[in-house]
Amino acid sequence: MCFSMSKTQFVILLVLPALVSVAEGIKIEFPGIAPKISGCINVKCAMEINKCTNDHGTDLTVKLKGCIASRCKQAMSSCMEWIIQAVLSIQQASLAHIPEQFSSLKTLTYLMKTFGINSYLHCWQHSDLQKSSQITECLIEKAQPYVTSAIKPFFRKPDFVSCWLSQVLRRYFSCYDFIGEEYFSSVQQKFEQMTETHFPEFALCMMNLAKYWNDGCGEMYTHIYGLTPTEQTKYKDLITCVIDNMITATAACN
Fold first, then answer.
1. What is the CA radius of gyration of the chain?
2. Which end of the chain has fewer CB atoms surrounding its CB within 10 Å, N or C?
3. Are the C-beta atoms of residues 108 and 88 closer than 8 Å to each other?
4. What are the domain boundaries of the chain?
5. Report field, pTM of the whole predicted structure over 0.85
């Protein structure tokens, strides 16, 4: 059984946990940032991070995180450009349809900077980094007004759809406890490898899985979610958990 994901889900899953190492050996946690972006921030902002630790110490207090968030915002913005360019390359190659209002680099950059970066850094600064669910909850809450506005042209009940997406995403992370961290870590690692090495093809597959299943996407999808009998059992449990969460979210938003 395959489980195709929307563009929204793909972007959310693209953003995965990682660590950024800075020059003096301290590790600044950025849960939700893909390794390629983390490495880029590490290069572009290491000196600024070190200045912040010199001023505020190495304990990740709100003050230290606020300093890093302020000094590294521009670096993060620059490091996010590869995602925008990759999405545009998919569109220009006619591999996937992107709604017209999101089709220009200017618009994508604006959305990334106004919502993505600012919201992430705010949530990162004010969350307990030992509890990654706090950042997730914060981001979902901040995203909901943007989602409602973005989907208005496509749905008669945008408030319901936005509520439903938020509820599903919040409940999705409860599946971690049900399925087990080891399986999710394996999926995450494979997902990151694909986004690092084959982003355009991978994005095409995830957003049009059924259409391109026999053109390599089926093999790519199966590789990520598991080939062994144990992994396939975990995958079936995951789908069951996700479907149950969708039913619960529907009831919660009615």
1. 19
2. N
3. yes
4. 7-253
5. no
